[in-house]
Design a protein that fits this description.
about 160 residues; mainly beta; 5-stranded antiparallel sheet
């Protein structure tokens, strides 16, 4: 009986989380599609998803793929971030070549002044795969994109 009680509580949390996700993503609004951008913010247990123009500074993620379950996000490259609501969104950073970013407790990653401590610079954003030399490389298979990164202070 006690086990059933915990299962029921877990099911209620899942239903509430799904309802919360529906509310924060606009409910009956248009379903996100690959290429759409958004601002994800909030605590990891209650993230907020807000549609954003890809050119906007607050657009920190881009929808790579829309799937039914987290396990369906593509493999074989850098790990995708996910956002689950009525569907699961496989997300990649909305990095812009030449721009700088830093870690952010609420959003994960945010655009930053290149002089900021711990900022990283996107040296190259290439559709497909490319060699990045000595910098850090993030490659995603779907859509195929490679980000070449370096510390903002490095003259690469």
């Amino acid at each position: 009986m006690r086990k059933l009680g915990w299962w029921a509580l877990g099911a209620a949390v899942v239903v509430l989380a799904g309802g919360y996700a529906l509310t924060t993503s606009g409910g009956a609004g248009p379903r996100p599609v690959p290429g759409d951008c958004a601002n994800i913010s909030g605590q990891s247990d209650r993230p907020r998803y807000e549609v954003a123009d890809c050119a906007a500074a607050q657009a920190n993620v881009k929808v790579a793929k829309v799937v039914d379950q987290v396990g369906q996000c593509p493999g074989g490259g850098a790990p995708y971030s996910t956002y689950s609501g009525p569907v699961t969104l496989c997300l990649i950073p909305n990095f812009v070549e030449g721009s700088c970013y830093r870690q952010d407790a609420e959003a994960g990653v945010r655009k930053a002044d290149c002089a900021a401590t711990e900022a990283i610079r996107v040296v190259k954003a290439d559709p497909g795969t490319t060699a990045c030399g000595s910098g850090r490389t993030l490659t995603y298979p779907e859509p195929a994109v490679t980000f070449c990164l370096s510390r903002a202070g490095d003259p690469r």
